[in-house]
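Sequence of Metalloendopeptidase (Raoultibacter timonensis).
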Amino acid sequence: MRQVYDKRILRAVLCFALCASVVVAGLFVSAQVAHAETISEKQAEADELMASIDSLQTMLNDANAEYDRATLEHERASEAADSAAICLKEANLRVDGLQEQLALCAASMYKSGGTASMLEVLIGASSFEEFVALWDSFERITEQEAGLIQESKEACALAEAAEKELAEQEAKAEEEAENAKAARDEIAAAKDELDEELERVNEDIVMLRAKEESERLAADEAMRRAQEAEDIIGSGGATITGWTHPIPSGASVTNEFGWAGAWDGEYHNGIDLGASEGTPIVAATAGTVSYVGDYGSGGKAVKVNHGNGIVTIYMHMSSQAASVGQQVSAGDVIGYVGSTGYSTGPHLHFQIEMNGTPVNPRHFIRF
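Predicted 3D structure, token representation.
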């Protein structure tokens, strides 16, 4: 049986493997996974993003100032256009008033007060003196009022031209304000996007640092536990009394422990012992059965707790012959060789752990 372990932490404890999996899962929470894999690369990416954000902030400040200026200009143009419209209305009212006054003055000259024209009034004069007086009065009224009307019309024309020009200026100012707003919003959106990206990168940096620290602590712990195992086991290659071969009828080693038995890049946590289907498997030393059941890729398995942090695991069984809580002695049958789980043929994967760290079974048993 083979299980995957990081080369940098060959002998890391299983609890660290769980912590590492949580850290790795956290690294992929972000919807956009960055290409950089190291803290220095991530930091360089963050620095580049911050420089871009700083440039965009400068541009955004300028865009905000331009938008404020254009908005103020539009407000002023609108006020000027409104004032011009009022002036034009007043000028038109003045022309209408003067024309009305002229009509009233002409009407007052009618003798009969009827609907006769001015020409008829003049022709109907009773004497030449009356005709001259009427004509003179009409001439004065006409010149005076006509002059006022012309003056007012000219003022009206100027007001109309001013209104048109200011309306065009207002439209132009409005367009500039809209363009300034669009430019400002575009820069702000780009900056917001970079801010979000920077936040994701900073989160990646935090997670990478946490992972790095976890690996460092796990490596230290693995070394401590490995040394602890060496202290318990004694010198390398020695065997410990009270232990027996898990397949006493005889079985050859088909795969070694550690990287010596690595296959397809996977670290091997035990020793594989080849034997025919149904060959009895025994407890390697005295202990208490702590697990009987399916062990994932290890298929049907039995675990025995021997105290002092030492556990043996027997995998790929065709069937188990032990129950949880059962007290066993060295040589007691606990199962039979099989090829369950991830296996290429009948064999026993025999694994020894000390405080959760897999150790080489050859330290305990001479195979």
